[in-house]
Each structure stands twice: as C-alpha cells, then as structure tokens.
Amino acid sequence: MIERRSLRVDFDPCVRLMYDDCACIPLAGTEMPTIKDVAREAGVSIATVSYVLNNKDAGIRDSTRQQVLEAVRRVGYAPNVTARNLKASRSGLIGYAWHEVPLGQVNSVLDRFTYYLAQAAEASGYHMLTFTHPPGDPVEVYSDLIRTGRVDAFVLSDTNTDDPRIRFLIDQDFPFVSFGRANPNWDFCWVDTDGTAGMRQAVDYLIELGHRRIAMVAWPENSLVGENRLAGYLDALENAGIPLHPAYIFRGEYDIQTGHDAVIYWSQLPPDERPTAIVTVTDLIAIGVINEAERQGLVVGDTLSVIGYDDVPLTQYLRPALTTVQQPIPEIGRQLIQMLEMILAREPLAQRNVLFAPSLIIRDSVGPPPR
Prior knowledge:
Strand content: 5-15%
Number of helices: 13
Order of helices and strands: HHHHHEHEHEHEEHEHEHEHEEHEE
Distance between the termini: 100 Å
C-alpha cells in the first residue's frame, strides 16, 4: 500500500510577496536560491529585495540597491520571469508572421530583418513568437493569438496597400508596429526605408556618369514597395530633364527570370534606343539582367551598367560585383522595438512614422555609357 502524506507550507506576508513578484522555479532535485537568501546575504528585508528587483523606488537608497544587486550575483539568484509576467498579465512575447517565399525565390532582406528584430526584442526583455498564416487569409491567426493572450503585441512586415492585417489590428486597438506602409489615410506606427529616395539616388548617379538611356525593371502595379521605388526613378529623370522612353519600364515578378525577360525585351529595340543602364527594383532581378546581358555579349560595367536594390549578401561576390541600394535593416529593427516598448508602456511617441534613408553602395557593375 502506498502511504500518502500531505505537505503543508506556511507563508508569511513577506515570503508571499516573493512568490508574487520574483518567485523561482526550482529544478528537480536542486535547491535554487530564493529571495530570502538574497535578503539574508544583503542584510536587508525581503520587501527591500523585492522592491529592488522590481525596479520600484520606495525610498531605497542607491547604496542599498547596489548592495542587493551584488548579493543577487553572489548567491546566483534568478527571478522567475513567468511568474512576473502572469502578475502583469503579459506573455513577454511579440508575434511575427514568418514571410512566405515562393519556391525558387529568396528574400534575404526579410531574413536579415527577422534576425535583427529578434535581437532587438531580446535586448529589451522580449522574445519573438513566429507563426504562419494561410495565403490570402491572415486575419484569423492574428485574432486567435489575441483572443488566447499569447502575445503582447505584433510586428508586421511585407505589407501592401490596404493590408488587411493592419486594418484588423487598428480596429481591435491591439498594440503593433509595422516595417512598411499600407494606406496613407490609416493612422498606425510604421518604420520604412525611403524607397523613392533610394532609387532616385541610384538614377542620379547614372546621370552624373553621363547616362541618358536609363531603363528600370519594376514590380507589378499592386506592389506598394515597388511603386515607391518606381517613383524615385521617374523623379530623377524628370529632375534631369530626361524624357521617359515609353518602353523603358518593364514589369515582372520577384525572380531572376524577370531580369532575363527584360533584357531580351530591350534588345529588340533599335540599337540607338537600347538602354545603356538598367536599374532594378531588387538584386535578384539584377542578377537575371546580368546573366542575360552577358549571354548576349554585353560587358556589364562597360557596355551596360546595372544597379540593384537591397544589397543582399551575395551581390558583392558577383563578377562584376553589383552596385546596389542598401537598407539600414539593423536600425529599422531597433527602431520598431523601441516604438513598441513605448506603446506597451502607454508613453507618447515623438514620431509615429519613421523613414530611414538608404545608401548607394558603388561597386563594379556601373561605369560611364559606351561611346
């Protein structure tokens, strides 16, 4: 017969405070230091330790605060974050939908963004909860995560015009920030790269080198990011007084084949109308442009100049190395988390919308136009 025994534990008010605010979860077979051990080591009350660990003022002197923190290190005490979050009705998690990449394509920009976003979140005491959602129907997953209280907020990326996720989160009044814009009439917090300024910078550089026949490979018209970059191309031409050739804008999908198709399309123009320089909405398309140009006997950087966008890691190893526009991805990740922290703390934001300036990275794929 198995003998059952009951275990009775009596808590005094101060010890109960420990469990409310900073309890430890001991591992099986081990005795982890408690807040009581810290108090004994520091020579202060348990309440004082609790105030220090929870960053509460309570009239505690700086010398006492330092004394407690040194005792924490000496005894090896670690607060139970789960218990603290439960008390604050928070999960400590930020939701982020993993971006979908079609088969045979890559999206190095969002891959890098996800890493730096997670890095910034962890530096602020949060962790990322990544998830996926069905194509064309993202809202239900967001609704479920909100309903079950599994996240404190969301970060969105890969946004588009009238993005349904953003509209839903605005209507729910749930905390979120976005890497990217959606609708100029919607009031929400976003951070973005100034794609118009980035492409304008690329085209201005080609014009300074003497190019006048400059073409662009763009995305379909429903791409918000693509249209922002196309606007920079058009602005630069207009500012330089260069008329737009009706055949110099080629639209296609986010893949290498689009670059191939664009060069084939322009090669059918009369020789004196063919572009001497091509800017592309993304580096992946630029690689397709370079491959097809070389297949046709053109020398990239000499008889044809090519500029990409995004500065994905492999572009510097191409031959010739690709001139491209670089987005400040680490800074964007940090800015988004800083904004989210202020939103969660209900503090006013000095800026609800932030545009970062990109940089033109000049390499070997660009030169003056051929004589």
